[in-house]
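<instruction>
Derive structure tokens from the sequence
<entry> Chain with its tokenised backbone below:
===
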Amino acid sequence: MFVLGVDPGLSRCGYGLVARAEGTSDLRAHAAGVIETDPAAPLAQRLLILHTELRALVQELRPAAVVVERVFFQVNAKTAMSVGQASGLALLVAAEGGCEVVQYTANEVKLSLVGYGAATKDQMQHMVARVLRLPAIEGPPDVADALALAVCHLTTVPLRRAMDAALSGARSTAASTAASTAGSGAGSAAGMTAGSKEGTA
């Protein structure tokens, strides 16, 4: 299963493709890098470049899922707007490509990989490199963040599938029980009605 992580940003958008072979827990990085746009260029042109590059990545790599960081809060309003624009483009491209679209917050990724939501950038990079069996993560922090998103999704998929299966089983059991109870009640009501008619006759 191939998963593409995207750390959204307008000036620098990180991406990382991670795969896990069926039946194993081994994860491997297959591609990683950043898409950059010129801060001095017009906004529309920068968005077009980012959209074009992201679409080309999805078409070339063909991931089963695209994971985009969900940003809840930014101190800098301008940064928040540009990250939101980049995030929206990534979500659009993933949907256009027919990929599963997933979002995690930075805290969720840190909890998944390190065990607590206040992990530092260095700790995250070290853990991502360790999980992917790399000596180090090359490039800017955006690359490690993108790989971390993909790793987070791949490591939580088995748990989410198990939970979905358990919930589905519970719902089926509840539905069967309800149907059985309803049938029993209907049978009892019919018996009481018949008995009442016989008594009247």
Observations:
- The two ends are 72 Å apart (CA to CA).
- The domain at 2-162 is CATH 3.30.420.10 (Nucleotidyltransferase; domain 5).
- The mean pLDDT is 84.
